[in-house]
Amino acid sequence: MKNEIDVKEWVRYADMDFLAANHLNEIQYPKPLEIICYHCQQAAEKMLKALIIAYDGELQKTHDLGLLTDELSEFVTFSENILNSVDALTPYGVKIRYPQELNIEESHVAKAISDMKTVYDFVKNKMEELKLSPPVEELNKENSV
Questions:
Q1: For residue 12, what are the contacts with CB-CB under 8 A and spacing of at least 6?
Q2: I want to staple 112 with a disulfide (CB 3.0 to 4.6 A). Which of 40, 68, 91, 126 is the partner?
Q3: Measured torsion, CA atoms of residues 85, 80, 71, 87, in degrees rounded to the nearest 10
Q4: What's the CA gap between 143 and 121, in Å, rounded?
Q5: CB of 64 within 8 A of CB of 10?
Q6: How many whole angstroms separate alpha carbon 2 and alpha carbon 91?
Q7: Can you give the pTM of this predicted structure?
Q8: Cα separation values, 138 from 8, 12, 50, 87, 144, Å
């Protein structure tokens, strides 16, 4: 692996998007549906990018989760369920940021959160298989003592 710290930083940022999506869905009223879906896509994107770095792959500047899974396909086999989640989340990476691009309803949010968790958990399991060391926060604590 080229840089384990880079992997952990991507995961840390994915964690923030993951938490933001869940928090906004559970706490905010009215729910900012588009923003929740955007954070779901971002969490999945950042986790996939972390996995690409973990496998020493070539990181692309893209929001297309399908391109990221294509990059990972030489290292990882994706189930149809994962690929369906990736396909469902991809439009939320760009189109959702602009008015009138997508018509989002609460059912879309529930699906986006489910898809985010599917991709997130898949990548976490792959990282455990790679036996990655403690998160960045723990490494920073060790270095400050």
A1: 135, 136, 137
A2: 40
A3: -30
A4: 29
A5: no
A6: 30
A7: 0.86
A8: 11, 12, 18, 34, 10
Task: Please report, in tens digits, the pLDDT of each residue of the chain (145 residues total).
Answer: 567 889 999 999 999 999 999 999 999 889 999 999 999 999 999 999 999 999 998 888 999 999 999 999 999 999 999 999 999 999 999 877 667 667 889 999 999 999 999 999 999 999 998 876 545 444 444 444 4
Q: Which of 72, 73, 82, 91 has its CA nearest to residue 114?
A: 82
Neighbours of 95 (CB within 10 A): 16
Paired tokens of 72: 């990972």
The secondary structure element, H or E, covering residue 12 is helix 4-27
**Distance in angstroms (rounded) separating the CA atoms of residues 24 and 50:** 24
100: phi > 0 → left, psi -120 to 50 → alpha, else beta; which? left
